[in-house]
Amino acid sequence: MQEKKLMDETISAIATAPGEGGIGIIRISGEKAISIANKIFRPFAAKSIEEYGYRMAIYGKVQDEQGKIIDEAICIVMNAPNSYTCEDVVEIQCHGGSIVMREILSLTYRMGARAAEPGEFTKRAFLNGRLDLSQAQAVMDVINAKTKASLQMAMSHLSGGFSDKIKAFRNDILSIIAHLEASIDFPEDDIEGMDFEDTREKVKLLQDKIRKILESASTGIILRDGLKTAIIGKPNAGKSSIMNLLLGQERAIVTDVPGTTRDSIEEYVNIGGIPLRLIDTAGIRNTDDIVEKIGVEKAYSYANDAELVLAVFDSNEELNSEDEEIIQLMDNCPGNVIVIMNKMDLSADTNNDIISEKIKNCHNARIRGIVPMSAKSGEGKDTLENLLKDIVYGGHTDIVESQVLCDARQGEILRQTANLLDDTINTIDMGMSEDFIVIDLRSAWEKLGEITGETIEDDIVDQIFSNFCIGK
């Protein structure tokens, strides 16, 4: 009842990003959207927007209650159900200054709209049946996509590719349930093909398909959120130079003075379609400088928290205690580690064999490779890129975007579904009757429905959309 009351209200919000721009959009949705627009927008070539057809760009001016012009703008009207929310929607495209947009938004409130909650436009699209829950979640993934690969994955989910796969799983389960229930309801008919071993094989095949999607979870989450990557090394090993090389710009200060990087620098970079959340840390060494010491402590913290560590060594200097400290830190890092032997352009190679031998004695480190590099010439960058692809894709570079799992909640639902199918197989193996098998299968069917939103509690829906931005 409360949900229906909220849906009856007309909402409005600024739909463009915060800050100044050439164009700003105020979006209004609900049964009063058109009447509110009529009160505040005056077309230059007509008396009201109702004299125009729907889905036309109408040029005019926005006026307040006293007739004072706030801005010249374009108004677009989309009538229900042919809109994003399946409700009457009006978008006012004005100049993108923050003041003018806030003035127009405030005017919509005074005319009867209320402030939209985070994600409420997309939530209404979901509740009105335009999108299922998986597609709705993909909306924010499209907005936040950091590489072409992450955009393709998000668009595949938004287009319904992942939902179709989940719905196919649910239909497979329903088909098995229908067959079992037919044998329960009509035992005298001796339902053709009623074979427990055949049922077991169908359940096992479905379980294998679900587990295959679960294998893509780490890849999907990395493509969506980025691979948290810490660059560590002693001072002047070339950490900042490596970061600048990967970024393709001079982001970090590079000097011959040890301890130049005292605080951590964080940037996103696209490496072969993989978004890396790069963190250039302070050079690790013993120091009496209070500020630098804090930076070194943060470097340890980032290395221990990172999913990937790029450990940078100077290939032209003799191994010293600072290098030994880096190697020890590598051995304790929980994430993957790639060792970079930097300054290969100088060709002395003093440190390579020694470092390689030391690394062999690292018993805990998840070292994925040693890459000779030159931050100056770019040598070794392609090798690093190929290593990253192997880490993220696990060798499966032909992965299908619609089958990539990119959400922790969805992953947990699929894991629980696989476990419920395990219960089903155990029920069959114990020789229990069709009734008990159906109970297990129906639990799995309902659990899968939580991904598309067909069987989900309202509070979970609210929680999901609360993470959206306002105006979407």
Automatic annotation (TrEMBL):
Exhibits a very high intrinsic GTPase hydrolysis rate. Involved in the addition of a carboxymethylaminomethyl (cmnm) group at the wobble position (U34) of certain tRNAs, forming tRNA-cmnm(5)s(2)U34. GO terms for biological process: tRNA methylation; tRNA wobble uridine modification. Belongs to the TRAFAC class TrmE-Era-EngA-EngB-Septin-like GTPase superfamily. TrmE GTPase family. Gene3D superfamilies: P-loop containing nucleotide triphosphate hydrolases, Probable tRNA modification gtpase trme, domain 1, tRNA modification GTPase MnmE domain 2. It comes from Anaerovibrio lipolyticus. InterPro entries: G_TrmE, GTP-bd, GTP-bd_TrmE_N, GTPase_MnmE, MnmE_dom2, MnmE_helical, P-loop_NTPase, Small_GTP-bd. This is tRNA modification GTPase MnmE. (6S)-5-formyl-5,6,7,8-tetrahydrofolate binds at residues 27, 91, 130, 472. GO terms for molecular function: GTP binding; GTPase activity; identical protein binding; metal ion binding. It is found in: Cytoplasm. K(+) binds at residues 236, 255, 257, 260. Homodimer. Heterotetramer of two MnmE and two MnmG subunits. GTP binds at residues 236-241, 255-261, 280-283. It holds the Pfam family TrmE_N. Its main location: cytoplasm. Its EC number is 3.6.-.-. PANTHER family: TRNA MODIFICATION GTPASE GTPBP3 (PTHR42714), TRNA MODIFICATION GTPASE GTPBP3, MITOCHONDRIAL (PTHR42714:SF2). Its cofactor is K(+). Keywords: Cytoplasm, GTP-binding, Hydrolase, Magnesium, Metal-binding, Nucleotide-binding, Potassium, tRNA processing. Binds 1 potassium ion per subunit. One of its GO terms (cellular component) is cytosol.
